[in-house]
Amino acid sequence: xxxxxxxxxxxxxxxxxxxxxxxxxxxxxxxxxxxxxxxxxxxxxxxxxxxxxxxxxxxxxxxxxxxxxxxxxxxxxxxxxxxxxxxxxxxxxxxxxxxxxxxxxxxxx
Length: 109
Prior knowledge:
Blueprint: H1 7-22, H2 24-29, H3 40-49, H4 68-83, H5 96-107
């Protein structure tokens, strides 16, 4: 008997891959290593901590490394993420004022 992923997990993976593909230019503009968008779990780990806390990251990338221009691109990716309907949570990787704006927009759904 072979291993089969559930239809929901398979669809979630396809949805995530589509999100990354649709946002690849902005992700690149943010200077994010590919590892951060490898999976939704990596992405959520990064947004919750500002670095990968629960996944191996040989680069040691942190949100503190991005320039102001890259930060604005990162913010755009995060806005797109929540606008796509992904469940809202406080993205600690972002500045508190941006967290509040995102909460006001997506937190009360």
